[in-house]
Amino acid sequence: MGFLQKLINKARVKSPYVFHFNSGSCNGCDIEILAALMPRLDLERFGVKLVGSPRHADIMLITGPVTEQIRPRLQRIYEQMAEPKFVVAVGSCACSGGVFRGGYNVLGGVDQAIPVTAYIPGCPPKPTAITFGAYKLLEVLSKAFGVAEKKEKEEVPFDITAAQSEGVAET
Amino acid sequence: MMQTLQFLDILIWGLWVLLFPGIFFITFLALLWEWIDRKVYARLQNRIGPLHTGWQGILQPLMDFLKLLGKEDLTPKRADKRSFSAVPVIMLVLSITLCMFIPIVDMDPSLPGIQGILSFEGDLILLLFLSSMLVAVIMLAGYFSSNPFGQVGSARTGMLLISFEIPLIAAIVTPAILTGSLRISTIMEGLKTLNIPYALLLILPLVIFLISIQAELERIPFDVSHAETEIVHGWQVEFSGKKLALIHMAEDIMLVFAAGITTSLFLGGPYLLEFIPLDVFSVTFATLMQTSWIGWVYYTLVFMFKSIIVVMILSNMRTAFARWRIDQIVHYGWKFMVPLALVNLLLVQLAIVYIFPILGVIV
Question: Which of A90, A97, B233, B265 is 20 to 30 Å apart from A64, CA to CA?
């Protein structure tokens, strides 16, 4: 792998442009996605930028179950994105169909229509969960592109009793 | 002149154009300014902004650029293919050419003061022409992509252009009237020796210019032409991959140009300590800076400092206001900004011809 290719792979991990697609959601997940971009959990820290056009995007965030009516449009939008492209299903409905699974007009999760890279379950998933999912996706991508940082981060076990005795958990 | 131009001279000239005040330096500034812009924008919204790419996310614009370079390059089936691919290149070339006019360091030691790489009598007019042409190319970009959203975005860019080009020109003409020259470097030298009452005349055109340049750059109060939520990035909608990378770079370089031209024409160019009315600074220090290599470092740093101030003002405007509707933009453009710019011109003429001579103030 040449130096330039490595640099571009690194850049792909460091600057994901996100495009948001609603395939029939109740707007709960959409609001949580926006909350993840807002001040408290600023996703722009990782270089995530919300763009409007699928042509500009690297990652498509999909919320909601895929209905029969939205499926051709979803596939068309997916084809309009430029390679390399990844799909993240946000919310229970997008993961599996959720409460709408088995409905006469519902196809099921997003993976019934287009390939999905990551799933973020929850109804709706918390903004923290979306941030965690985005971070995990970037981690997996950096391993797939071979640009993972060499130093593995140390896992700190969280001891709830020790935290309570220090008064962290109450606050 | 031509006989004496040796091979070495050509080499040094090429290095100037390519490296230091030229393309490389301008690109470096463009990436840096975009980082500052994004960071200030995020901090004013109580966010952090880019953080994990280099120190405080300073490499984020570079990473965006490289990522877009490595992406697949799509051309719509119905687009005019040759023109569609030509537009980003023309935009980049035009914006770099615009930046060549900005005086940063002393490029021609035979003349007094500081010149840009390109500098001749009347370059201000060419500058205005080129910046209008850039907007015309943007309008063509939307039409060549043959996307309805792109065409709506183009039409809106045209609206923006006809509303805010006149105040821009009227504001830029004021320093030219005050110093009696149409050459940017001469204007800058004239501003250095201007009396304080005359310098006060520059405040109103500076405000008009900053508002108009924000419209020219299509940033937030005036970003109807690429409103993400309504017409998905307007004229940029079909561009992807390398073309989008070049367009983003051209926009960043336009920001460098906007900040640089504001610095040169209104804020006194790359002079800072020379304005202190002491002999140590205004004579000794100025001569040292003009004659030795330290001046190159000093002028560059002062230029960057003043430009950063302008960039931060523009980011503040981006944060503080919401997007205007197109009818509001045209309304305020024609009913408020254009008359204000014309009144400003009238005021400057009155002040120079009648008021200041009566009060006994000399240039």
Answer: B233
Q: What is the pLDDT of residue B141?
A: 85
Structural domains of chain B, count? 1
For residue B69, which residues of chain A lie inside 8 Å, CB to CB? 8
Q: Among candidates B246, B196, B205, B245, which has minimal Cα distance to B95?
A: B246
- Check CB contact of B60 with chain A, cutoff 8 Å: yes
- Domain interval for residue A120: 3-165
The residues that bridge with A86 in the sheet, in sequence order, are A59
What distance in Å separates the CA atoms of residue A88 and residue B29, rounded to the nearest whole number?
35
Q: Do B67 and A53 touch (CB under 8 A)?
A: no
Share of chain B above pLDDT 90, in %: 19
In this structure, what CATH number is given to the domain that contains residue A144?
A: 3.40.50.12280
Eight-state DSSP code of residue A39: G
Q: Which residues in chain A touch residue B38, judged by CB atoms under 8 angstroms apart?
A: 44
Identify whether B1 is part of a domain.
Answer: no
Interchain CB distance below 8 Å, A55 and B240: yes
pTM (whole model) above 0.90: no
Closest-approach residue (CA) in chain B for A56: B240
Q: Is the pLDDT of residue A93 over 80?
A: yes
Average pLDDT of chain A is 83
